[in-house]
Amino acid sequence: MKVAMLVTILLTITVSLAMIPALSAQTVDDIEYLVIIEDNGNVVVLITINGIGLFEIPIQEDVQSVDIEGGLYLIEDGTLEVVIGSTEKAVIVYQTSMLTSKNDGVWNFDINLINIGYEKTITVAMPANTVVTNTNPQGKIESGEIMKISWDNTENVFIEYYFQAVDETTDLRPLYVILIGALALIAGYYLTTRRKKSANLSKKESIIETLSENEKKIVKILMDNDGRIKRSKLERTSEISKSSLAASLKNLERKKILEVDRTYASHYVKFTEWFNGL
Hints:
Elements: H1 3-17, E1 30-37, E2 43-50, E3 53-58, E4 67-69, E5 72-76, E6 79-84, E7 89-96, E8 100-103, E9 106-112, E10 119-127, E11 130-136, E12 140-142, E13 146-152, E14 156-163, H2 173-192, H3 203-208, H4 213-224, E15 228-230, H5 231-238, H6 242-254, E16 258-261, E17 268-271, H7 273-276
Parallel strand pairs: 1-10
Antiparallel strand pairs: 1-2, 2-7, 3-6, 4-7, 5-6, 8-9, 9-14, 10-13, 11-14, 12-13, 15-17, 16-17
Helix pairs in contact: 1-2
C-alpha cells in the first residue's frame, strides 16, 4: 500500500471522527508534532494543539489542503492561523514535499515549529534503512523497525540523512503502522475530549469565546450596530481606555474579525467579510 493512500485514509477518517461526541476533557497547553518522512521526500505532518486562542503555524507553499478538527483556520502568507474555542483542542494534518531537499544522495529535513511559549514535543518517523548523519539540535534517536527521533521544546529541527540500499523484500510496513497510529491519535482525541459546551454554537460564537473581555465587548457593540460603527462612538459606548481600545482593535484586526476604515477623517470600525460570512 502506498503511503499516499494511507494519507488519504487518514484525512477521510479524521473528517468522519468529527461526528463522534467527545466524552471528557483535559486542559493542557502543549503542542505535539508527529512528522512522517517518506523515502521519496514527501512528508506528512500531524499537529495536536491543546489550548484555547489563536495559533500561528508556519506552513509550506505547496500545501494544497489542510484537514483540521476542533478549530477554524485561515491560510495567509505562509502561515496557518488556527482559532480554537470551546473544543480546547485541535488536530491538524497536511502533506508537503518542501520540508526536504536532496543533494548528491544526501537528504536534508528542516522545519520551523510554532513559536510560542507552550510545551512542545516533536517526533520524526523515518524508514528503517535511514542513516542519520547529523541533527540540530541533538535529538533522541531510536532505531529498530523504524527510525524515530524526538525533541522537546525546540523552535527548529534540522536532520541530515541518507537511505541505505534495500532489496525489494525489505519490509517497510512499520512506517505505515506509524500512519495508522496517527489515526488512533486522532480517534483518541474525539473519544477523550469533553463534550462541547454547546452543540449548537455557531462558528462566530465559537470564535467570540476565545476573545478577551474587551474584545468581546467591542464585537458585541458592533453586532448591536449592524457591524459598523464610528470609532469615536465606539470609544464612548465601550468605556474602554484609548490605549486598551487601540490594543484590542489591533488584536481583532490580526484575527481577521474586524477592520478599521481610515479613508476619511472619521474612522469606522467594521466586521471583515470573512467574519460576516461565518
